[in-house]
Design brief:
157 residues; mainly beta; Pnp Oxidase, Chain A; seven-stranded antiparallel beta sheet; three-stranded antiparallel beta sheet; 3 helices; 12 strands
Length: 157
C-alpha cells in the first residue's frame, strides 16, 4: 500500500483551480471554505462536484443545507484562498461580495460564480463527495488561481 506522503506528493503534481464554497445557515450566518477538489460532472443537466474533509468547518452544514455558491478564484485572490482555508471565524470581514439568489456569498473579482443545489453526497475515506446541480452560472474575464505542489501558481499564456 502507498504511504500518505508519497500519495500527497504524486497528487500535488496535478494542478487544480481554487474555489471558495459559501453558504448561509438557517440563522443567516455566512460560512465559507477553500476547496481545490472541484470539477465538472455533467453538461446535461449541468452538474459539478466537490470534495470536503469530514473535519472541515462547513461539513455538517453542507449535509443539511442544500443551497450554496461557488466562486472560482482569479489569480489576484490568493489571499482569499488562504483566509478561507484558515480556521478564522471572520473570513468575510473586509471582503467585497454580492449575494446569490439563495443568499450565499459570491466573491467579487472571481473568475466565475456558480449557484448550486446539492443533490447527493457520497462518503469516500476521510472526505465526502458532494454532487450539485447548477442553477445559475456567470463567467467572467481574468486568469485563474492555480494550486500546484503545495503552493499557488499563475497561468502564463
Amino acid at each position: 500500500m502507498i504511504d500518505a506522503d508519497t500519495f500527497r506528493s504524486v497528487l500535488g503534481r496535478f494542478a487544480s483551480g481554487v474555489t471558495i464554497v459559501t453558504a448561509c445557515d438557517a440563522q443567516g450566518a455566512d460560512h465559507g471554505m477553500t476547496v481545490s477538489a472541484f470539477c465538472s460532472l455533467s453538461l446535461d443537466p449541468p452538474m459539478v462536484l466537490f470534495c470536503v474533509d469530514h473535519a472541515a468547518s462547513m461539513y455538517q452544514m453542507l449535509l443539511s443545507h442544500p443551497r450554496c455558491a461557488i466562486s472560482i478564484l482569479s489569480s489576484n485572490q490568493e489571499a482569499y484562498s488562504r483566509r478561507f482555508a484558515d480556521q478564522d471565524n471572520e473570513r468575510f470581514d473586509g471582503i467585497a461580495y454580492s449575494r446569490g439568489e439563495s443568499g450565499a456569498v459570491l466573491l467579487d473579482e472571481s473568475l466565475a460564480h456558480l449557484e448550486v443545489r446539492l443533490v447527493a453526497h457520497h462518503d469516500g475515506g476521510d472526505h465526502t463527495v458532494f454532487i450539485a446541480q447548477v442553477d445559475r452560472a456567470e463567467p467572467r474575464h481574468g486568469r485563474p488561481l492555480l494550486y500546484y505542489r503545495g503552493g499557488y501558481a499563475q497561468l502564463e499564456r
